[in-house]
């Protein structure tokens, strides 16, 4: 099969022929219908420092963990009524399926978990990929492969909003209008936030937030974010989400937050940072970090998609094939107007 292969940090991905996946006894093999490019993959493809808290990618691995596709092969010991032709999405890991962590829906903490973008579990920037049956979910008939590939980033946003303890009527500032920031905006609106202001350095991305639940958008490159927020809300926001994840963005979120406010860091920063803890201390901020979601959140997102109660389509931008993929991946490393670029390898 063809896949976009990681060679070295800072180098473009190379589309080449790699072995087809074969299922272990409790696995499924999917023909990939769609796979979104995630900011985490963009960061990982540049990382060379294992001390930052994130693994360094091994050469010859395949990334891609936001995907949906069609079952083409079923492992011999798979439990449940899985059949070829089923349309599915899956969690980005395979756990043992038996331990307490797997059973509680937190298989990413399983001692034997296999994570995407490793030699043990190649990702879905490819024509086919392997998934665990325990970690797989059927797509409702109304949900496309592209929408199925959006379940994962939407679950990230849902987890972040849960960790914020958002209450109906809260005022919110989201720093960053990428896929995670817009997912957060969607859930803030879903759970009843009164004011949802989204800022971004790219005006088109900030404006896109208005179609995803934001009540106001601000072009942070040209406008004063806090002047805008205070004009709209009448005060500083009760909740701030850092959905950027670059050095300086956490301090910026601290500066924006109200006294006694809540701050959730959901943007992934893979570099050292400098901040002034006293500013957070004097404000008595509650600061939480949001990494990944329990399996129940993934299932909730898929159910709401199937019922038409949430709509991620405004986030989806270009849809490309493998021949265009390497260039598109590199282009996303620089500020641009895209939100979620989709690979359709087949």
Automatic annotation (TrEMBL):
Keywords carried by this UniProt record: Metal-binding, Oxidoreductase, Zinc
GO MF annotation terms: oxidoreductase activity; zinc ion binding
Iron-sulfur recorded as keyword: no
Cofactor(s) listed: Zn(2+)
Pfam families: ADH_N, ADH_zinc_N
Residues covered by the Enoyl reductase (ER) domain: 10-343
Family per similarity comment: Belongs to the zinc-containing alcohol dehydrogenase family.
Protein's UniProt name: Enoyl reductase (ER) domain-containing protein
Organism: marine metagenome
